[in-house]
Amino acid sequence: MKCSVISSEVRPFWGRVLLLFVLCCSFAYFGVAGVIYGFMKKVGYPVTYTIVALPSNWYQINLARAEYFMGKAEKAYQTGDLNEAVIALSMAYEYDPTNYDAGLSLAKLWQAGRADLSNHLYERLMLEHPAEQPRTAQTWLRALLLRADYSAIEVLAARAIEFDPEFVPAWIHELLFSNERSGNTPLLTRILQSGADFPPGVREVLTLETEIRARPGNYARNLLGHPPPADVPSFVVYYQLRRLIGLGNPDKALELLQSLSTRLSDRDGIALKLKAFSADLSRRAEYARLFEQVLALEPSMSQIKVICAHLIASPDPTLYNRVKQRIDLMRLPTPGEQITGLMGLFSLSAAHKDLPHMSQLASILRQETGSKFNALNGAEAMIRDPERVRIDMVLSTLQPMSLDLIYAMLERFDSRES
After folding, report:
1. What is the pTM of this model?
2. How far apart are CA 5 and CA 269, in angstroms?
3. Which of 259, 292, 325 is the last residue of a domain?
4. Spatial separation of the C-alpha atoms in residues 81 and 277, rounded to whole Å
């Protein structure tokens, strides 16, 4: 059988075949993309069809997965399922390693049970998110304090002084507080010799501290007994006065404080006076009078922090009983402050070995938070058997708590040799 059309007039059909093939493949591709999109939406991934269908948008799939697991982690944390929260956060961070919030949350959850992983992740966040270094360092600091990891704290504080200028007074305090317990005086010398461009006041404090340790006794007291230059920051004044009291010269500290009071906040001035009065038995009447003045203030977190931090570090049964009689935490303005205040008073009761009051406050905490708060039992166990249950084993359970109170608890209860 022959074709009746002249060969020159035969139209090629390969183009139509190719077009048909492309159309079939396109329909198949977008159909499969639709199935995948439907599946991902059913799972809960926050994706759009264009994200799934267009290769140029595929990078957003992992971002959507990370967002999905972040949501799962938040729900798990709210219900108290920490294991599920850790798994979900791990998946979120795996899908999106640039997600700073996921990494930081994961480091927080790991800090109690997996300190090594937590430290590694904090260090990674410090390196990969330089703009967030102050936030990362401050969060990491709290984790290290709760474990009483003084060697790590002093190294972190020495680094943070250079990139977190707004927090310098606290970093100086953390550096010296931890270094005193680690006994690593050469670290302070190396910091001074590093040639770093420190914020104002840092070099002055570190120089004073190294000289005091090299020549203790009368030389140290005389060195601190002179007013600091007028242009140094207030934290230098606070350090000098606090160190004088610690070296057993509260009278000189009070004398200096009288002339330097305008260079300190009211809160710091009161805290230093309480510390100086408590160190001098001859000033008992002044001590009690000042304490009553602080108790008479309108309830606030500043008042609670000053009172609790002072009496935790320097227990006094008489003044402690006055606190129990006078402080009404329910007058604090927000539920969050009430919980923090309750935890402060619970810790204060622990410092005075008042187990009945600890139990009473624990019941109130459980009622106010709607949580079993079984972790509070660890603090009671520490009071009963401090040789077996150390402060670093229970401090992470006594939260929320301000840094002031954490330092006071460590000063009062951590008697380990560094």
Report:
1. 0.81
2. 109
3. 292
4. 47
Residue 405 is predicted with a pLDDT of: 92
**pLDDT tens readout for residues 344-378:** 999 999 999 999 999 998 888 888 877 777 778 88
270 and 286 fall within a common domain? yes
- In this structure, the answer to whether residues 82 and 112 fall within a common structural domain is yes
Which residues have a Cβ under 8 Å from the Cβ of 19 and sit 6 or more positions away? none
What mean pLDDT do residues 133-138 have?
96
CB atoms near residue 48 (< 10 Å): 13
* CATH number of the domain residue 79 falls in: 1.25.40
Domain that residue 306 falls in: 297-418
Contacts of 418 (CB under 8 A, 6+ apart): 150, 151, 181, 182, 183
Cβ–Cβ < 8 Å for 398, 365: no
Which pLDDT score, from 0 to 100, does residue 97 have?
A: 79
* DSSP characters over 9-25: GPPP-HHHHHHHHHHHH
Both tokens of 193, joined, read 């010799």
pLDDT band at 418 (very low <50, low <70, confident <90, very high): very low
Taking 90 as the threshold, does the pLDDT of residue 241 lie above it?
yes
Asked, for residue 22, whether it belongs to a domain, the answer is no
Total domains, the chain: 4
Quote the CA–CA distance of 335 and 212 in Å, as a whole number. Answer: 45
CB atoms within 10 A of CB 20: 11
What is the C-alpha separation between 213 and 224, in angstroms, rounded? 12
pLDDT reported for residue 62: 55
Establish if 383 belongs to a structural domain: yes
Same domain, 185 and 235: no
Residue 210: predicted pLDDT: 94
End residue of a domain, out of 292, 317, 346: 292
